[in-house]
Structure formats: structure tokens, C-alpha cells
Amino acid sequence: MNIPFLDTWRRRHVSAPPASPLAAAFDRDPDGVAELLAECELLRARAGEAGVELDDTPRSLQELDQLPPRWRDDPEELPWFGNDAGLYLGTVVVRNVPGARWQVRPGGGPVVRLASGREIRAVEAGLDWATTGAPPLSRAYAEAAEY
Fold first, then answer.
1. Phi and psi for 85 in degrees, rounded to 5?
2. Are 17 and 10 in contact (CB under 8 A)?
3. In sequence order, what are the beta bridge partners of 86?
4. Model confidence pLDDT, tens digit, residues 8-66
5. How do residues 83-96 score in pLDDT, each as one tens digit?
6. Which runs of E-coded beta strand occur in the chain?
7. How far apart are the first and last CA of the chain?
8. β-strand partners of 110
9. Coil, strand, or helix at residue 67?
10. 135/118 Cα distance (integer angstroms)
11. Which H/E stretch holds residue 60?
């Protein structure tokens, strides 16, 4: 039923939906949440097994791009690995690109906001990379560093 005056009243009197738990935590302690996002435990473990040190530098992204994609053999591990790869990509961008910072989207997912205002969906990029190998993480970083 379309009753225009009720729609207007609802917009004025119904409160906004509550923030996601990640957004609320980010508002309280952005540095602490950034540290949690940087953990990427599964990715760090698999990279360490392959002899790759993840030191939060762009060079480490190039080394990840060179790893044989053994994670694709385990369909249960693949999405977790891709999520970690995206969080690691975001961490490298935030720690190496001036003005870049983590931000929480209205739906509750973390993204990287560049100084230019451009938004990098790092987790999605990590999932794409883990699944298909493209685009390489190092290229995603290079594109973010250009802005």
C-alpha cells in the first residue's frame, strides 16, 4: 500500500539501522582493527611454508604472485585464503601508500580508501587473485599507488 505521508513520517522518525560490529569496533579503535585485519594468519602460514616472508611491503606481493596456486586444490581453504590475500593487499596499501586508510562500507565490509577518495575493494581483489590468479596482487597495489 502506497501512503505518501506515512513514507515521509517513517523517514523522519525511524532510526537508521545499527552499524555493523566491524564498523562499531573501527569507530572505537581504528588502529586496533587495522592490526586485526593485518593478521592474515592462513596466508602468512602458507607463504611461510613456501619460504616467502610477508613483511607488508610491495615486494612481498610480487613474491605471492609467484607462488604455485596449491590453495586452489582445497575448495574449503580457497575462500579463506583469498580473503586473507585481500586483507594483506589492503594492509600493504595502507602501510605504504600515503593517505590510504581502512574504512568500513555500510554493509560492514572493509575497504581501503585512498587519499584521492578512490575505494579499493581489497578483499574482492584477493578472492579474484586466489581463484584465477588475475589480477596479480602486485598490479592491484601498483594501481592503488598511482592515485
1. -60, -40
2. no
3. none
4. 666 665 555 556 788 888 888 989 999 999 999 999 999 999 999 999 999 999 999 99
5. 999 999 999 999 99
6. 101-104, 110-113, 119-120
7. 48
8. 104
9. coil
10. 18
11. helix 58-65
Q: How confident is the model at residue 80 (pLDDT cuts 50, 70, 90)?
A: very high
Grid cell at residue 33: 582493527
Query: Span 84-113, mean pLDDT?
Result: 94
SS3 call for 75: coil
Residue type, 45: A
Residues in CB range of 117: below 8 A, 6 or more apart: none
Asked if 69 and 137 count as a contact pair (C-beta separation under 8 A), the reply is no
Would you say the pTM of this structure is higher than 0.70?
A: yes
Place of cell 575497504: 111
Q: Do residues 100 and 93 make contact, with C-beta atoms less than 8 angstroms apart?
A: yes
Burial, 52: exposed, middle or buried (Cβ in 10 Å; 0-12, 13-18, 19+)?
Answer: middle
Question: CA–CA distance from 124 to each of 20, 81, 106, 107 (Å)?
Answer: 19, 12, 16, 14
